[in-house]
Amino acid sequence: MFHQQPKTDAFETARPHLTAVATRLLGSAIEADDAVQEAWLRYDRAADDEIENSAAWLTTVVSRICLDHLRARSRFVPEHDDYGQPERGDDDAGPEDIAILSESSAEALGLILDTLSPLERVAFVLHDVFAVPFDEVAAVIDRSQVATRQLASRARRRVREERGQTTPRANPNREIVAAFFSAAREGRMQDLLSVLAPNVVLRADRMTQQMGVPAQHIGAQSVAENFFGGAVAARLALIDGQYGAFWMNGGQIRVVFRFTIESDQITAIDMLAEPEAIAAMDIQPAIVRHRTSPRPRDQAPGCGVESPSRPSTIPQT
Fold it and tell me: Which residues is 284 bridged to in the sheet?
């Protein structure tokens, strides 16, 4: 039996599945790694007689951890408990839904999932994507099977509706912003300069300046140098419908990066850390496919990294 394996072996066997579940639920490989690690800590502390099936137990635990993370995020659709009987013909996934899931790119589906409430997202992902039975999903989210089916049904309808709108709504600036952060993190100066307009300006609000970022940098070379090798912990996101990024610390968004793009080049970057300004923004994390480099847990957003040739502009938090 799976649960009779030594704990470490059982966990390593389950890890790929747990990582896949957490990544789809959270939309971020980095947060998924954290959730899986937390699941291991709970698993390691649990008494053997508490666990009948390690794989099922771990899936339940990592799903609940992810649900807590989703609930902690702001600006999600409110959760409701007014779920009645599932509508006839829509209480389970059909062949057309399997096609939708298989044909959707990870990014497109991730953006759609970001429109769901935490309960809807967990019910839909566990059942429709990972084929977890509804009775087990109900135990994860602490709802009745009827309510769980209705949550998944409501999510499924949303996915069907949004699926046809994803392509025309796609923002062409995504690749530019993604290329900017990729080049910055990996230290590719020429690629970084290529997406910056010659007269690009980097502006920091009052709160970001208090973290140690200069009020303003002008010119592609100056801006590139300040991001070169940095922004490791920045996460790509839709900020009020436009692609940008944010940096989190202590479970809260601390800094938002907003981009102005003209003629396929970045003409301005605004770093915003005022809590009131951030609270007023509609921030939807974009899915992250993989981690390109190890992540320091509390690395600040800073434009750059400390080097002998110039002072660090990393905010000290």
Answer: 238
